[in-house]
Amino acid sequence: MAKARQRGEADTSSRILDIAERLVQSRGFNAFSYADVAGELAVTKASLHYHYPGKAELGEALIVRYAQRFSEALKAIDEGGGDAPARLAAYAAIYGDVLRDHRMCLCGMLAADYETLPEPMQAAVIEFFDENLAWLADVIEQGVREGTLRPSRSPAETAQALLGGLEGAMLVARPYGDVKRFEAAAAGLLTGIAVVAPR
């Protein structure tokens, strides 16, 4: 009986995160409330507070889960091998898939609300971006070594430009509801640092 109750609580907690994540990715952190989540789950707000005492705790849990899934996606790219341009294209495709689902990058949306976020959430957002920037810089360094990438700036600076460009491309493509706009922008970013003549 206790195990069944634990499974039920874990399932409810997961469903809360699923709904809250979708709301943040489509509206932003400050544009949804516990009442929105409770309404979709058909539970009381008190039930939500049982799992996540406050919106700050819920937000932090969202970032942790999102960052873990993103990290798993990067690990899958690493395990898939391939040269640096292929790995960067796979990275950009992650963003395209999110946009195709009519959502935005969770941490990109939270960055827009950054000044109003509780400090633990602010730190978690920065940690997410730092981990992505480190991964991108490593891939760009790989490309320089193998001769498939020729960035005009350092790997770290190129990683910043690439991440910022992808997040911005999502924002610009969103009002049009056109993933192809994002894909064209992403392709332009990647072509800009690739060696013109493949080896």
* Overall form: elongated
Rg measurement, Å: 19 Å
Please give the count of helices.
9
The biggest beta sheet is recorded as: none
Query: Regions with pLDDT < 50 over 5+ consecutive residues?
Result: none
- Along the chain, the helix and strand elements come as HHHHHHHHH
End-to-end separation in angstroms reads 62 Å
For the secondary structure, the number of strands is: 0
User: What number is the mean pLDDT?
Assistant: 92
Tell me what portion of residues adopts beta-strand conformation. Answer: under 5%
Question: What structural class do the secondary elements suggest?
Answer: mainly alpha
Tell me what you see in this structure.
This protein is an all-alpha fold and 199 residues long. The protein is built from 9 helices and no strands. It has helices at 2-27, 34-41, 45-51, 55-80, 84-100, 106-112, 119-146, 155-173, 179-191. It is elongated and about 60 Å long. The mean pLDDT is 92.
How do the helices and strands line up, and which of them pair or pack?
Blueprint: H1 2-27, H2 34-41, H3 45-51, H4 55-80, H5 84-100, H6 106-112, H7 119-146, H8 155-173, H9 179-191
Helix pairs in contact: 1-2, 4-5, 4-7, 5-7, 5-9, 7-8, 8-9
What's a quick, concise take on this entry?
The protein is mostly helical and 199 residues long. It has 9 helices and no strands.
Keywords, separated by commas or semicolons:
9 helices; 199 residues; mainly alpha
